[in-house]
Amino acid sequence: MLLVSSSRAGYHHGDLAQALENAAMQLLAEKPAQEISLREVARAADVSHNAPYHHFADRRGLLKVLAERSMADLVAEVRAATADVDAVSALIEGGAAYLRFAVERPNGFDVIYDPTVCIPGAPSEIMAPLIAELENLLGTASAAAGLSGDDAFLGVWGLMHGLGTLCAAGHFPLDAALAAYDASIRRMLPL
């Protein structure tokens, strides 16, 4: 009796979950999350087309992981930019890191803020602390620079998010967005 395995040789990864997530993140660097399929992730990870279902319940599960990993990367970049600098520099450099992420990783940025993936008011267990840390990093920098209160923080976040979104869409270059953010923040600061 001849036994034939239906699995592909590449299926036996040391860590299937990590291999699938890495393949999905590589695809996200090339195309929007909404265009990535589980079958495509399997192909990119060199595993059987059913292998992703061992890690992702469905396509929404894949998108959720893409958003969580992208948010973790964004938070890490903002954290690094705000560390060991004065209050005003933390606000400006933290916002600049946010803007750069939006422009340099637009697909990751888009999936983070996709309300069908990260439902406003109901983030996943992984996303909730990441959101809290990002808000804390930027909110603390804003307050320390003299822009305290929820309304001030919302204005700062809206400024950086809006500039990042418009710049990523090609409406103006990154240098112009960074200069506009810096100048706007400096004008907002109390004398």
From TrEMBL:
Stretches assigned to coiled coil: none
InterPro entries: Homeodomain-like_sf (IPR009057), HTH-type_Tx_Regulator (IPR050624), HTH_TetR (IPR001647), MT1864/Rv1816-like_C (IPR025996), Tet_transcr_reg_TetR-rel_C_sf (IPR036271)
Keyword set, alphabetical order: DNA-binding, Transcription, Transcription regulation
Gene Ontology molecular functions: DNA binding
A Pfam match: TetR_N
Ranges annotated as DNA-binding: 37-56
Residue stretches making up the HTH tetR-type domain: 14-74
UniProt keyword annotation of Transcription regulation present: yes
Keyword Translocase among UniProt keywords: no
PANTHER family the record matches: ACREF/ENVCD OPERON REPRESSOR-RELATED, ACREF_ENVCD OPERON REPRESSOR-RELATED
Protein name, UniProt field: HTH-type transcriptional repressor FabR
Protein species of origin: Microbacterium hydrocarbonoxydans
Gene: fabR
